[in-house]
């Protein structure tokens, strides 16, 4: 967990934040206003010191078969990939977050090596979660999703002080992301896959070019003089 800050997935999220620039006055106004997860501005005085509300995950951690909606077929596909070839599901998830060149191979191949090494040495996939858990942190930050600590606090009503401290909350949430990947690895990959498929199209469909065939213009033979 020491190399979290150097992970390219988290650097993508940081780069998106650094793109937002402006004058000092604009930054102060933006900080004092705040924004909800749906992009709606919050009030000024009524929300001072209150954390911005975060969205909940589209499906629970153990909803392996997904929901009975238009995404049902892809949910079943995600479940099968997470159960039998998690390296492909992990690579696909990362590719949707960061569609840079070679993203799929750069994450799928190291994951496969750690997966085979963990199963051969220890009998289960205990090494790959150390490599893959930053993807969950990147998804949670990108879509402003509720973390495990915040969900627990909301359900039981305790530890309010920790949630209000943004830095402390983020450290706790990153540790919970790792614990979720380590203890429920296949389920966490499937939950992330379902979330990404509902929110982002596959990068291969974004730059798809359409070839339009135009029939040739009808030509008439002219008369010779």
Q: State the end-to-end distance.
A: 87 Å
Helix content: 55-70%
Structural class: mainly alpha
The average pLDDT value, as a whole number, equals 76
Number of strands: 0
Tell me the series of helices and strands, N- to C-terminal: HHHHHHHHHHH
The whole-angstrom Rg is 23 Å
Query: What portion of residues belong to β-strands?
Result: under 5%
Silhouette: globular
**Unreliable parts:** 23-49
Main sheet makeup = none
**In DSSP terms, counting alpha (H) and pi (I) runs of 4 or more, how many helices?**
11
Write structural notes for this entry.
With 225 residues, the chain is an all-alpha fold. It has a domain at 73-200. The protein has 11 helices and no strands. Helix 1 packs parallel to helix 6 (128-142), helix 3 (72-84) crosses helix 4 (86-97) and helix 6 (128-142) crosses helix 9 (166-183).
Quick take:
The protein is mainly alpha-helical. Helix content is 59%, strand content 0%.
Summarize the SSE layout with pairings.
Elements: H1 8-18, H2 24-33, H3 72-84, H4 86-97, H5 103-122, H6 128-142, H7 148-156, H8 160-164, H9 166-183, H10 185-199, H11 203-206
What are the key terms here?
mainly alpha, 225 residues
């Amino acid at each position: 967990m020491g190399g979290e800050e150097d992970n390219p997935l988290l650097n993508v999220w940081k780069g998106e934040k650094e793109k937002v620039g402006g004058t000092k006055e604009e930054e102060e106004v933006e900080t004092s206003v705040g924004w909800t997860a749906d992009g709606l501005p919050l009030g000024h005085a009524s929300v001072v010191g209150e954390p911005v509300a975060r969205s909940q995950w589209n499906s629970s951690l153990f909803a392996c078969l997904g929901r009975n909606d238009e995404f049902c077929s892809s949910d079943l596909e995600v479940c099968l990939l997470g159960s039998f070839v998690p390296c492909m599901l992990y690579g696909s998830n990362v590719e949707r977050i960061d569609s840079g060149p070679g993203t799929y191979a750069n994450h799928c191949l190291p994951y496969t090596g750690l997966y085979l090494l963990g199963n051969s040495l220890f009998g289960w996939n205990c090494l790959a979660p150390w490599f893959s858990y930053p993807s969950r942190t990147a998804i949670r930050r990108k879509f402003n999703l509720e973390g495990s600590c915040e969900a627990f606090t909301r359900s039981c009503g305790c530890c309010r002080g920790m949630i209000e401290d943004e830095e402390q909350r983020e450290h706790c949430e990153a540790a919970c992301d790792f614990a979720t990947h380590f203890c429920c690895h296949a389920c966490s990959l499937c939950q992330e896959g379902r979330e990404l498929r509902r929110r982002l199209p596959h990068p291969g469909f974004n730059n798809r070019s359409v070839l339009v065939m135009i029939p040739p213009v009808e030509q008439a033979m002219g008369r010779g003089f």
